[in-house]
Every structure is written in structure tokens, then in C-alpha cells.
Amino acid sequence: MAFTITDKCVGCAVCTKICPTGAISGKRNKKHRVEALRCIDCGACGRICPHEAILDADKKPCQRIRFRKNWEKPVIDRKKCISCNICIDACPVRCLSKTFTPEPVDKAVYPELVRDRDCIACGICATDCPVGAIVMKAPVE
To answer: Which of residues 42, 66, 90 is at a domain's end?
Structure first.
């Protein structure tokens, strides 16, 4: 179920810039559209739209979260993580990467959010994690 754009769209094109799959198209100052087959339901378009012109898969208006720094981010529980790298492969914007623990004995590799600014808060990493080691949390100020 793809996100859809309503008649509130003014064609500002902010959504086209954040869409990781290029599923949104349209001319500047004209209503844009979402190509359903390319949409991965990440919701980034709805979080960034300044006109609240985007409906989610349930046809409910998406709520804009004005500043990206306030978007949820993945938090990884290393005690649960099995270092399978599924989350890294699943991330549509490649903001997760492998990182080594600093311990000289029993070094291990875990996923880490290395490009915080690039995270679009889609939650795909958390959804795809087979052991529930990732949760999406809003930053605490």
C-alpha cells in the first residue's frame, strides 16, 4: 500500500528530494504523485511535507515533524544483536554500518547508526531485525 498525495500538494518538491526510491514525481508548482510500485512505505515524504498533503497507506493524513533531528532513530541493543547485518542491508539510505567493539579481547562487529542526518526514520531496520534488537526512538532533549 503506497502513500498518496492529496490536492493540498502545491508542488514544492520537498518530498521528491527525500524519497529514497524516487517514487515521487511531478512538475514544480503542480500536484505530485507517488508511483505505488516504487514506494516502500517509509513515510519520509509525509514527515517532511510542509502542507500535510500526504496520506499514509491507511489513507490517514501524515503528521509533519518539522525538524529531522526530532525524527525517530534506530537504537540497537547489542545484547540482543546477533550481528547478522540484515538491518544494514535493509536500510534504504545506507545510514547503518558495521562497527567494531573497542574491547581488544572478544572483538565483535555490530550495526551502528553512522550517518544520523541521513536516517529517514522509516523503521525498516527495526522491522527486519530477526531478533528484535532494534527499536525506533525519538531523540531525548
So the answer is: 66
Cell of 81: 544483536
pTM: 0.86
Residues 96 and 3: their CA atoms lie apart, in Å, by 25
133 with 108, same domain? yes
8 Å CB contact between 39 and 23: yes
Contact assessment for residue 111 and residue 119, using Cβ atoms and an 8 Å cutoff: no
CA 110 to chain centre: 20
The C-alpha atoms of residue 62 and residue 47 are separated, in whole angstroms, by 7
Domain match, 113 and 79 both = yes
Residue 114 has pLDDT above 80, yes or no: yes
In this predicted model, what pLDDT tens digit does every residue of 67-110 receive, in sequence order? 989 999 999 999 999 999 999 999 999 999 998 877 777 778 89
Give the whole-angstrom CA distance, residue 71 versus residue 32.
Answer: 24
Number of domains, the chain: 2
Supply the range of the domain harboring residue 43: 1-66
pLDDT at position 1 is 67
